[in-house]
Amino acid sequence: xxxxxxxxxxxxxxxxxxxxxxxxxxxxxxxxxxxxxxxxxxxxxxxxxxxxxxxxxxxxxxxxxxxxxxxxxxxxxxxxxxxxxxxxxxxxxxxxxxxxxxxxxxxxxxxxxxxxxxxxxxxxxxxxxxxxxxxxxxxxxxxxxxxxxxxxxxxxxxxxxxxxxxxxxxxxxxxxxxxxxxxxxxxxxxxxxxxxxxxxxxxxxxxxxxxxxxxxxxxxxxxxxxxxxxxxxxxxxxxxxxxxxxxxxxxxxxxxxxxxxxxxxxxxxxxxxxxxxxxxxxxxxxxxxxxxxxxxxxxxxxxxxxxxxxxxxxxxxxxxxxxxxxxxxxxxxx
Length: 334
What we know:
Number of helices: 3
Shape: globular
Radius of gyration: 20 Å
Largest sheet: 6 strands, mixed
Strand order of the largest sheet: 10-15-14-13-12-16
C-alpha cells in the first residue's frame, strides 16, 4: 500500500462520477453465515472466476450512477460465494485490482474491503470477513455495512459486525497479547459531509467466531493523539480506537513504518531509538476560533506523533524523528 493513502484515495474517488442514489444504511445489516466448504470443480476455473470478480469490481466505478450499488451487490455476491467455495483453499483475491484484501495469521480471517462513492462526494464502505470459529473448527462469513454516519464519535465504543464503523483499510498490523491476536487497521473514511477522517481501528475474534471492533490497547497518559492538547480527564481504558478529523481539501500522514523517536535513558538524557511505529501528523485548526470545526483542521507541518507497540499496548510518543519512508526495513514483531 502507498504511504499517503488518504490523499490518493480521496483524489481517486473524486475522479469517479458521483451520482449514485443514496443508500439507507440503517436497512443494511451484517449477517454471519456458516461457511460450508466445497472443492472447486474443473468447470469452475479459478482464472475465469478471478476475471469475473475483476470485471464486477471495476463496474462499481465505471457503470452509470444509478447502477453503482447494484454493481457492488453483484460483486459482493460472487465474492461471498467464492469465500465459501474456497474455504480451505487459497484464492488470489489480492489480484483483484484496487480491492483491499487482508489475511489473518494461521488463517484466522480473510477480509475483502472496498468503498462505494455516494452522490454528495462522500464514500460508503463495505467488507466481507470470513472468521474462524475455533469452538467448532469452521468459519463464519460476515457481510459488513458502514454505520459510521450514525456514530460520528466512536472512540469509546466497542463494536461488532452489526454496527461496524466502516473505513477503507490500507494496512493491517498483527500483535499477539496473551492468547489473543489483535489486528490493527489503518484506514480512511470520507463519510461526513464537511470533513474527512483517518482511523486506527482494532479487530479481534472471539473463540465462537464473533467479530469485535475496538480494544483498550492505547496508552496516551492524558495526551490527545493528533493534537498538542492535554486532557487528563480522558482515561486510556475508555479509548477503543483513534479517529483523526481534518478538512476535505487537505490530507494527513498515517502509516506504519520504521522510524526513530527520542527516549530518555537512566541518566535522563534523550537518546534516539528506532522502532516500528504508526506515525501520523499532528493536526491544528487554521485559526484558533475554528477549534471546534474539523473542516478547518490541517497538519501542523513537520510535527509528528506516533504509536509504538510496547508491552502489549500502543504507547503514544511525541518526539518523532521522521525520515523518508522505509517499509522494507521494518523490524519483525511478535
